[in-house]
Amino acid sequence: MALQLLSLGKSKQPIKNVVYSSPYIEDNLRVLTESIFRRIKETPELVSMIDTAVTDHYLGPVDFFNPDGKPLGSTKLKQINTFWSDHNIQGDAFFGQGVDLLVDGSSFGWHIEPHQLLSAKQKEAITKIKQLNPSMGEYAEETSNLPISISYLAASTVTIKYDDTSILYYIQDSAGKRVKWDTNQVVHIKLMEFNGEIRGFSALKALTKEIVMMYMLKENILAAMQNGGHPDNIIYLKGIGGVSKSKFSRLQSALESFSHLKKSHGNMAIDTEVGVIPVGVAMKDMEYRELAMFIISEFALALGLPTSRVPFLMTGSGGSSNKGELSGNSEDSYQSKINSRRLVWENCWNKVFRKAGFIFKFRRTNLQDDVRETQASTQRAAYVQAVQSSLSQVGKQLILQSHLALLSGTKMNINEEDVEEKEMQMEQFGQFNPAGMGNPMQPDNKSKSRVGQDYQHAKEKTAFNNGVSS
Asked: What is the enclosing helix (H) or strand (E) of 142?
């Protein structure tokens, strides 16, 4: 036991689960991903579901902030909006990387910054500008770090090279070319951190059999519809010994003339007795629909899609399959998952954008909880306004602490301790009841404001100059 303890090594970081240390196995992983993509392209149901998931996750509106999370100035905001739209970042890089994330489990964003292409003299010039004018130097440095190109590396072409604790670099094999990419050029995002492995994991990789089943299912249906493999019926002539060969040939020709769909109607005269034995299997007995719906449900489960986001998903009996989701729990869970995945996405990509002087965040308008909270806040505000209006009629008002507690939702009911006497503002009474006839609270001329006194004085002076008594 002591010898075993002495032989233990030390590491500054957790050791990765190096399952795929062999280059041969790494190549097989890329081949597996390529095979899955090929099958997905032949499965329109899965293509549509992936498109829905990626659109929900990464194509929503975004807002831009400075690295501290505060609003940007108008000049900087205009520069970032132009950069974002000109590069079509969400439509190209984010969408393609998002598809890879759901299918492979690992996605590889790619970027190149002008700073990486600057010479030593140019970098030195930026440093001198910062010393002379910090604001101008900071702007020059951020501009030099603004990516001039953003895209992604297809997951099926990427091999990760790593040691026991970290990723060293990436290798891309495509079109007969082999390219090395440094870690500072690639934004590696994982869908699932699974068992400490270097490469991320996707639930779609666990559905390879289901994807193949869907492909074979459609092939089987196509073969059955093309009548490939077995006859529909066996037709025989009763009393065959008394029927001539010419009659049999005429019957055979007549039956064959009705075998095509375009010639499936008409009359056929038969001058002898025949018998029929059905041998074909009817489509309704094959339960294709139930099996197909089961496989599609597996796809939705793997992607985390509620059936409310899969409008074509129906039960085998023909009814909608989202009856259990009317409470919205499944949709809320899906939106929460989107929020979590977006946060990981933002954290990874903002390491690149922060150096350019900004960060981006997806708007959380998709979250049902946020929508409900906004509606509740509006209702609370209306309630507080109604309470204040009612109290005002009896000369009372809410104390500030109770007012804020009701608005925040931490307090639901009020009592005498939450109410105080309403402060009387004499000038307001004078404004709302200028006549003041019979009103003991109407202020006299001495209580007028300075502006009112000046106006009255000017009026009297004008009247005196015109020879008119005020």
From this structure: helix 134-145
Cα 423 to Cα 117, 406, 429: the distances in Å are: 68, 21, 12
CA dihedral (287, 291, 292, 294) positive or negative: positive
For the beta carbon of residue 43, count every other beta carbon within 10 angstroms: 20
**C-alpha to C-alpha distance for 426 and 129, rounded to whole angstroms:** 61
**Spatial contact of 459 and 470, defined as CB atoms under 8 Å apart:** yes
pLDDT 10s digits, 327-365: 445 777 888 889 899 999 999 999 999 988 899 999 876
Q: How many CB atoms lie within 10 A of CB 387?
A: 18
pTM to 2 decimal places: 0.62
pLDDT attached to residue 18: 62
- Burial pattern 169-191, b for ≥16 Cβ within 10 A else e, equals ebebeeeeeeeeeeeebbbbbbb
Tell me how many helices (H) and strands (E) the chain has: 15, 12
**Shortest CA distance to 363 belongs to which of 53, 109, 57, 89?**
57
CA 288 to CA 296: how far, in whole Å?
Answer: 12
Query: Residues 118-127: contacts with CB within 8 Å, 24+ apart?
Result: 118/144
User: Exposed/middle/buried for 307, CB within 10 Å: 0-12, 13-18, 19+?
Assistant: buried
- Residues 157 and 7 sit within 8 Å (Cβ to Cβ): no
Q: Give the tokens for residue 447.
A: 């209580």
